[in-house]
Design brief:
36% of the residues lie in helices and 16% in strands. It has helices spanning 48-56, 63-82, 86-101, 108-121, 126-155, 184-191, 208-219, 232-238, 263-272, and strands spanning 19-21, 28-31, 42-45, 163-167, 196-201, 223-227, 243-246, 250-252, 257-260, 277-280, 286-287, 320-323, 330-333, 336-338. It starts with 18 loop residues before the first strand and ends in a 10-residue tail after the last strand.
Length: 348
């Protein structure tokens, strides 16, 4: 076993840890994704404003990693602000969790993790509160890693030897605390000796595909080709792709799925050319309380991400789009392949 992986599933090069505890377990340690691929920069964060800033600036990104990072960051922030005093932690907890939960509205894992931390805090007395929250953050991290492993195992059935996979944005190790969601089956298949080729959309405007996905795949020795977003439809039409696997930031009860802007266009092109289009995400990304895609709040980003621009040009810069359930071949989760409608009792 290596970090929970049966030996036959262990990637040859384990991806880097995007979010974790500092050595003293009093800070959030992150691999700053803004600096990649030019520099592997590790940062330690100990206060609320810096944690929120890391999330909003995309130093931490990817729905699962945001949830794990926010949980660890919440503990570190409370520890710093309270001096470790239980009653003070109790007073600060709801407000800190609420502010972190609003840092990025589309990714459901963030609010899910904050709700879980607050509920855990309500079960213990003040003297035990900080340690209980630390334990809960640990549990969220362990479960996230196990989730990635499970998605990889379940996804082996759709990644045969010689598979040619297209993905959009980054749903690999950098988006989780494990080996990823959309890339987990790629890592698992490669570890079994299968040959896999991955095509990666550049993913404008911040190029998460070119900067992040291509970096971690190349680092793991996996054959990777980067293409401009606008070339994806032509590549799919060419017959060079066998399947598409993408991640998700929120999956509505009916299966409509929010993911990085540009995903919807890839799904349309895949559907037009008869190519399977899979969404890979943990069960925690499924939001049965959101009935459909129209009810998903879409985050909009600033004009600076599209700069330089003419002075009088207006900007429309949504971070996500919604792919209708009808365009999605299957939902790959840590529970296996599931089908909507998704219910609040956890049964699909």
């Amino acid at each position: 076993m290596v970090d929970g992986w049966p030996a036959r599933y262990v990637p040859a090069v384990l991806p880097p840890s995007a979010v974790d505890w500092s050595a003293d377990r009093r800070a959030l340690r992150i691999l700053d994704q803004r600096a990649l691929p030019e520099q592997e920069l590790t940062i330690e964060i100990r206060d609320l404003e810096a944690t929120i800033g890391a999330i909003t600036s995309l130093a931490i990104r990817g729905a699962p990693a945001i949830g794990v990072g926010a949980a660890i960051g919440l503990v570190a922030s409370l520890d710093t602000a309270s001096g470790g005093v239980g009653p003070s932690i109790r007073t600060l907890l709801p407000g800190f969790a609420e502010r972190l939960g609003r840092a990025r509205p589309t990714a459901v894992n963030l609010a899910w993790a904050m709700g879980r931390m607050v509920r855990r805090g309500a079960t213990v007395n003040d003297d035990e509160l900080l340690e209980a929250l630390r334990d809960e953050a640990d549990a969220i991290q362990r479960e996230d890693r196990a989730m990635c492993d499970a998605i990889g195992r379940h996804g082996l059935s759709i990644v045969p030897d010689g598979a040619r996979v297209l993905t959009h944005c980054n749903a690999g190790a950098l988006a989780t605390s494990g080996i990823g969601t959309a890339l987990a089956p790629v890592y698992a298949a490669t570890a079994q000796g299968k040959r896999v080729t991955v095509y990666v959309d550049e993913t404008r405007p911040l190029r998460q595909g070119a900067r992040l996905t291509a970096w971690e795949l190349a680092r793991a020795g996996i054959d990777v080709t980067v293409l401009p977003d606008g070339a994806a439809a032509s590549l799919l039409a060419s017959g060079a792709v066998d399947l598409v696997i993408v991640g998700a930031d929120r999956i509505a009860a009916n299966g409509d799925t929010a993911n990085k802007i540009g995903t919807y266009g890839v799904a349309l092109a895949a559907n037009a050319h008869g190519i399977p289009f899979y969404v890979a995400a943990p069960w925690s990304t499924v939001d049965p309380a959101t009935p459909n895609g129209d009810a998903i709040a879409i985050e909009h980003r600033g004009a600076e991400e599209l700069a330089p621009l003419p002075a009088l040009a207006r900007v429309w810069n949504p971070a996500f789009d919604v792919t209708p359930r009808a365009l999605i071949t299957g939902f790959l989760t840590d529970r296996g392949f599931i089908e909507p409608p998704f219910r609040t009792d956890g049964i699909s």
